[in-house]
Amino acid sequence: MLIVIAILMLLLVGYKVEVPPATALVYNNIWTGKPDCVLPGTETLTPGLDRILEKEVSLRNEAQDPKKVEFTTKDGIPIEVDFLIKRQQVGFPGMPNRLEDFDKTQKKLLKEAAIKAVTKITYKDRESVILSRHIAVLKETLGQHTYNELFQDANLAEGDSGKLNKIFMKKIEKEVNEELLKDEATTEWGFWNELDLENINLPEILRKSREQSASANMAGKAIADKANAAGVDPTVMVIADALFGFLGSNRGGGK
């Protein structure tokens, strides 16, 4: 009997845990399942009653620089977007930068965010799942705009991809960040998220194709102008240019 009592006493005696700066510890009560959180400092947990779910939840900003991602505009034109996740941080939008500046209510909100980050998703996979939400919101937002809204003076039919409208790009960036505030990554997973749009362009293979098309159009126009000036059928001029080019290359190769 005394042994049983001794074991129970050991199980109920609290032990201290030290939580490092800029981290949080999330645990739950094994009987009720209710989770709780410890911010940086010292806390007493009860063995046999409190179970640690995540020992070190980072409270720092964990920015990401993803690879370029391809999306499609409202009018079906593929575009390549280079963006930066400038904020991926456990917490809530607009929170203070330093923990010592948090009031009691803000600390409660921070604890709730840390608990969500551990219990609503697999915490170690946070980078990939949050990136997926950024991509989804970007896709939805960009899909509401046409290519010509993004690029000024574009004429893809003639090989002119136009010039990126950076003012409009910033407008889209603002729209995306507003949507991220309402996204589940913020409301359900406990992360404050923001991104920067760095650049938007046609995918490289399309860009080269357009450039080649534009060069071909310019060459064709030059031949047509030359033929008209000489009073010759442009088709004949094309054949003549090709023939002279062929003979010239043969002469050069025979030296």
Outline the fold blueprint.
Blueprint: H1 2-12, E1 15-19, E2 23-29, E3 35-38, E4 41-45, E5 50-58, E6 69-72, E7 78-90, H2 104-119, H3 126-142, H4 147-150, E8 151-152, E9 163-164, H5 166-182, H6 184-187, E10 191-201, H7 204-230, H8 234-253
Antiparallel strand pairs: 1-4, 2-3, 2-5, 6-7, 7-10, 8-9
Helix pairs in contact: 3-5, 7-8
Account of the 3D structure:
- There is one protein chain.
- The strands form four sheets. Strands 3-2-5 form a three-stranded antiparallel β-sheet, covered by helices on one side. Strands 6-7-10 form a three-stranded antiparallel β-sheet.
- 45% of the residues lie in helices and 24% in strands.
- It is α+β, with helices and mostly antiparallel strands and 255 residues long.
- Mean pLDDT is 83; it is low at 235-240.
- The chain has helices at 2-12, 104-119, 126-142, 147-150, 166-182, 184-187, 204-230, 234-253, and strands at residues 15-19, 23-29, 35-38, 41-45, 50-58, 69-72, 78-90, 151-152, 163-164, 191-201.
- The relative contact order is 0.11.
Name its key features.
alpha+beta; 255 residues; 8 helices; three-stranded antiparallel β-sheet
Summarize the entry for a quick read.
By secondary structure, the chain is α+β, with helices and mostly antiparallel strands. It has eight helices and ten strands.
What structural category arises from helix and sheet content? alpha+beta
Number of DSSP-assigned strands: 10
Shape: elongated
Give the topology string: H per helix, E per strand: HEEEEEEEHHHEEHHEHH
What percent of residues are in strands?
15-25%
Mean pLDDT: 83
Secondary structure: helix percent:
40-55%
Biggest sheet features: 3 strands, antiparallel
Strand numbers in spatial order across the main sheet = 3-2-5
Distance between the termini: 109 Å
Based on CA atoms alone, the radius of gyration comes out at: 31 Å
